[in-house]
């Protein structure tokens, strides 16, 4: 057996020995019995999952947790949050400490297989970039030979960073810090030349630096980072609920159904796709193990994809992120809902 295969097999065996495989329906039954979803989020990333001073969480990843709770319980507040660093997140999901990991996590082959997880969709198509103080005078990542680079461990970021510098015959000095606040402070105080993470993370982190306007994001995007929620492998019934909740939010955007007009659409729409989505016709909810008003509740209580994108990371927020790859497929992006039928 080749070494890489042995390592992967070893990881999978260790995982199985420690945690076992989720039994069909086990997680869903447990969630229903306790009446809330335990959602794993970040320790605090603006726009994605961030607590306010009173401990109320908000963000795009938080809205995914809330939407699933709306689909399952008709109550977006039936969620409890567990803040997790990058290194803590997979064990927390594997061990059952959380039911759902909704935390800017990249869908990769090894996470989907050897780590025993299942990704349920892509809530945000991202890519890794670099932020630098304008004063450094750097215009391209290819000028970073010899730079010190702040990075968090246990991330794809750390791996892509090594690949990128090696592929371009450049050297760097990694400044590896686990806690987000500490890595931000290190960069803010000039203890590293540049900061690398997903571009969404750079936009988020820039908003909380001492002088956000003094920092630029370099043009290179060095990786693909499809971010999305994950469940334990084997939890198909639960995974289906998360997956179809995401599609329902996208389908609603595609059909022009929003939290603002959903009641009117439910009462008056003649479009069969809208009627099926909102449970006026057919039994889509039952098929996915939910009530027929599941998608109506998601849209009414949380919103369609465009609404949650704009409210958390869009032009009206400090992050000011454009839809880009996250526009609908019909508008030049990659977001596409599988048909609800
Ligand atoms: N998408 C990458 C990076 C995810 C990641 O953890 N990024 C950092 C920097 S933006 C983060 O979110 N930290 C938040 C925290 O540790 O609470 C991955 O899945 O490995």
Structural summary, described in words:
Helix content is 39%, strand content 15%. The protein is built from 14 helices and 14 strands. The radius of gyration is 21 Å and the shape is globular. Strand 9, helix 6 and strand 10 (172-176) form a beta-alpha-beta unit. It has a 5-stranded mixed β-sheet with strand order 10-9-11-8-12, sandwiched between helices. The protein has a 3-stranded parallel β-sheet with strand order 4-1-5. Strands 2-3 form a two-stranded antiparallel ribbon. Helix 3 (60-73) crosses helix 9 (236-255) and helix 3 runs antiparallel to helix 13 (294-301). Bound molecules: glutathione (GSH). Glutathione binds at residues 42-43, 45, 85-86, 104-106, 152, 155-157, 180, 197-198, 201, 225, 227.
Question: How do you describe this structure in short?
Answer:
The chain is about 40% helix and about 15% strand. It has helices at about 5-20, 25-35, 60-75, 90-95, 110, 155-165, 180-190, 200-205, 235-255, 260-270, 270-275, 285, 295-300, 305-315, and strands spanning about 35-40, 50, 55-60, 80-85, 100, 115-120, 125, 130-135, 145-150, 170-175, 195-200, 215, 225, 230. A hairpin with a 5-residue loop joins strand 2 (about 50) and strand 3.
